[in-house]
Amino acid sequence: MFKHLEHPADIGILAEASTLEEAFVEGAKGMFSVMCDLSTVKAEHRIEVTCEAGSIETLFVEWLNALLLQADLHSMFFSRFKVQITKRADDSFKLAGFAWGEEIDAPRHKIGTEVKAATYSGLKYKEERGIHSLQCLLDI
Fold first, then answer.
1. In this predicted model, what pLDDT tens digit does every residue of 38-78 receive, in sequence order?
2. Which residue in 29, 41, 108 sits closest to 76, CA to CA?
3. Terminal CA-to-CA distance of the chain, rounded, Å?
4. Which of 78, 80, 106, 114 is the most buried (most CB within 10 A)?
5. pTM for the full predicted model
6. What does the H/E/C string look like for the chain?
């Protein structure tokens, strides 16, 4: 589950799921739903995405920004995601994932607001009663 959070200048996203990986997936859906109508984006092409960070919170921002980079490089929107997160011996985290989508088709995708970056502003992670919650602000 994802939802957008009100902010005076930007847009916040909150992603919640029963697993950490699914919360990352929901965050990606939340971000791309700001940019287009996800129901119109076909999962035709797969792009590999990897990133690493020293904490779950920073990994979330790195993941979202890596997706934005790939979307920009390939002129694509993504609608389906899969991630695997591993904790390393040095307590850092690595994410290996995939994003599926298609080239941007403005009339069909019903383009929304451009997201410039996921930011560290408002960044939070918590796991409570089996629910993983992540949130951050998107620079629009």
1. 999 999 999 999 999 999 999 999 999 999 999 999 999 99
2. 41
3. 22
4. 78
5. 0.93
6. CEEEECCCCCEEEEEEECCHHHHHHHHHHHHHHHHCCHHHCCCCEEEEEEEEECCHHHHHHHHHHHHHHHHHHHCEEEEEEEEEEEECCCCCEEEEEEEEEEECCHHHHCCCCCCCEECCCCCEEEEECCEEEEEEEEEC
Q: What residues of the chain score a pLDDT lower than 50?
A: none
- The tokens describing 57, both together, are 């919170």
Nearest to 81 by CA among 92, 96, 69: 96
Asked whether the beta carbons of 134 and 61 are under 8 A apart, the reply is: no
25: tokens are 């997936």
The residue ranges of every structural domain in the chain are 2-139
